[in-house]
Design a protein that fits this description.
alpha/beta, UDP-N-acetylmuramoyl-L-alanine:D-glutamate ligase, Protein-Tyrosine Phosphatase, Chain A, 2 domains, eight-stranded mixed β-sheet, six-stranded mixed β-sheet, 17 strands, globular
Length: 417
């Protein structure tokens, strides 16, 4: 209760949820002694795959007995997920104490919720001599995390169209998104993950051509191939490694894992092949093509598989459909989305779907109503709750249920389960 009261106060310090500027967070961090300048950081920018890349790095470093701090957003089930120190989520009491102290130092000055959370993370992270894995939100250039002056590396995960409502209509292009995400990358090392096209890779490379960083590019400096016997062969300029299958689902995750490996192999961290082999089989991942194997919602599905995935943009839909294509069965989608997403574009990537059910996302005022979402798809059904949506499905043996469309929905699903 104490933590929730503090969070409620912080949300009222600025009239806007997002206000793209670095002035406020820089001013607060100056009062805090500029803690961000005392940290060893790896920055992760991109549209999709940031969370998975971070978790792959975390798992590999853990095998090497190297603890990390992590700052990510949004959270799925509880805000503590955003604050990981020494490889552990911060406790409610410690988070409340931290936020209360930073709130007092801020002294009522206008600042957005995300900005004051970011400043609080930096303020606490200075107490640990760890590598900090910093996920950049939205467009990076004016993201609150982009006040770090130096880092160990920047990872550019897959970039695609998302958050277009934050751009002027005449600038809602992939070129503009790439500019926003990569034009202010620091001068260290830049690792470019596998992208959807060579055109996007070329735009990224052109955009960072002025940057003096060492560039490590997928298919030029590192790559991987999948063997029919089940293993993955990763290769870079250091050499090749025969890897086991990771413990997370989806071929797209191999892109994120290979970028994580390329990053760690280009830093002086004494990472051994065995650390990598063991680490990628122990990756923690929630709401990213996560199979729900037990719980209340699983019980409703009986012997059918049920997955939850927080994807909400065309890139996410594309890779999800590719995964579903591996199964010769009926696939049922339960969909909830935020109002500012391109709903038809998202669903256009799903092929051979047996049913589509729309629902409201509980506790999200910025979500599109499930009935309004249903009206965009002629064959969709609306249900008033997640449980009803599952109960009303005509499930046959070995069918698959996928709940998708939003990370906020994914969090509600996991909490409900």
């Amino acid at each position: 209760m104490k933590l929730q009261k503090i969070l409620s106060r912080l949300q009222k310090l600025h009239p806007k949820e997002i206000d793209l500027s670095l002035d406020r967070v820089e001013s607060l961090c100056k009062k805090l002694g500029n803690p961000q300048e005392k940290l060893k950081c790896i920055s992760i920018v991109g549209t999709n795959g940031k969370y998975s890349t971070i978790q792959a790095i975390r798992a590999i470093l853990k095998e090497a007995n190297i603890n990390v701090n992590i700052y990510s957003s949004p959270h799925i089930q509880k805000i503590n997920e955003r604050f990981v120190f020494n490889d552990e989520e911060i406790s409610d009491d410690n988070l409340a104490k931290l936020l209360n102290e930073v709130e007092e130092i801020n002294d009522g000055e206008p600042i957005t919720y995300f900005e004051i959370l970011t400043a609080a993370y930096f303020y606490h992270a200075k107490n640990f001599n760890n590598i900090n894995l910093i996920e950049s939100g939205l467009f990076h250039r004016f993201d609150a995390t982009n006040i770090i002056k130096e880092n160990l590396a920047s990872i550019v995960t897959v970039i695609g169209l998302d958050h277009l409502d934050w751009l002027p209509e005449n600038e809602q292009t992939i070129e503009k998104i790439i500019f926003e995400k990569t034009s202010s990358l620091l001068n260290s090392k830049i690792i470019i993950s596998n992208q959807n096209s060579s055109e996007i890779i070329n735009i990224i490379k052109n955009n960072i051509s002025h940057n003096n960083s060492k560039k490590i590019v997928y298919n030029e400096d590192f790559s991987y191939s999948e063997n029919e016997n089940g293993f993955i062969y990763y290769e870079d300029k250091i050499g090749g490694i025969k890897l086991p299958r990771p413990n997370i689902l989806g071929e797209f995750q191999i892109d994120n894992i290979s970028a994580a490996i390329a990053t760690l192999r280009n830093l002086d961290l004494q990472i051994k092949e065995n650390h990598i082999k063991k680490g990628i089989t122990k990756i923690k991942s929630i709401a990213r093509l996560q199979e729900i194997k037990s719980g209340k919602l699983k019980d409703l599905c009986k012997n059918n598989k049920i997955f939850v995935d927080g994807s909400h943009n065309p890139l996410g839909a594309k890779v999800l459909n590719k995964y579903l294509d591996n199964f010769n069965c009926n696939k049922h989608i339960i969909l909830g989305m935020m109002a500012n997403k391109d709903h038809q574009e998202y669903m256009s990537y799903f092929k051979n779907i047996s049913s589509l059910t729309t629902i409201d996302i509980p506790n999200q005022t910025n979500a599109i109503k499930g009935m309004e979402l249903k009206n965009k798809f002629p064959k969709a059904q609306f249900r008033s709750s997640i449980q009803e949506a599952i109960n009303k499905l005509n499930l046959q043996e070995n069918d698959i249920v996928l709940i998708t469309g939003s990370l906020y929905l994914a969090g509600e699903v996991l909490n409900l389960n």
